[in-house]
Design a protein that fits this description.
Low-confidence stretches: none
Number of helices: 3
Strand content: under 5%
Largest sheet: none
Helix content: 40-55%
Length: about 70
């Protein structure tokens, strides 16, 4: 969930059979740091979670890119 004005990350919902501990840990840190969709889209993730199907994009980057293309 991003704010309308500055596109700051303010919430995350993760549902599914995949482990989400790494995703949620990073999301909490991103929220505490006040990262925006712009920050997340450009963030140099070292490696995607192993359960994610494509190694090209982290789930938080995917949501950030979706938000930015709609903005």
């Amino acid at each position: 969930v991003y704010t309308r004005g500055d596109l700051r990350l303010v919430g995350v919902l993760a549902v599914g059979p995949e482990p989400v501990n790494e995703l949620m840990s990073f999301a909490v840190a991103a929220i505490k740091q006040g990262l925006t969709a712009y920050d997340l889209a450009a963030y140099p993730f070292a490696s995607p979670p192993l359960w994610f199907r494509t190694p090209l994009t982290h789930p938080l980057q995917l949501t950030a890119l979706k938000v930015l293309t709609k903005a």
